[in-house]
Write a structure and sequence with these properties.
Blueprint lengths: L8 E3 L10 E7 L2 E6 L1 H5 L16
Parallel strand pairs: 1-3
Antiparallel strand pairs: 2-3
The protein binds zinc ion (ZN).
Length: 58
């Protein structure tokens, strides 16, 4: 018995697990990382629409 395999994502900046909103998910060898919404927002990397600004590389 095994349920569906859910991707497990951890924020590369703050270590938060499975954030509801995230950017730039990367999965390597079954280990997923991403950037949670809070981190780029706190750094001013988002525009007013909540999208990443051009030229921001996560
Ligand atoms: Zn984060």
């Amino acid at each position: 018995m095994s349920g569906p395999l859910l991707p497990r994502l951890t924020c590369r900046k703050c270590g938060k697990s499975n954030p509801a909103v995230y950017f730039a998910p990367v999965s390597v060898d079954g280990i997923g990382t991403c950037i949670c919404f809070v981190c780029p927002e706190a750094r001013g990397w988002l525009d007013r629409a909540g999208d990443l600004k051009e030229g921001v590389c996560l």
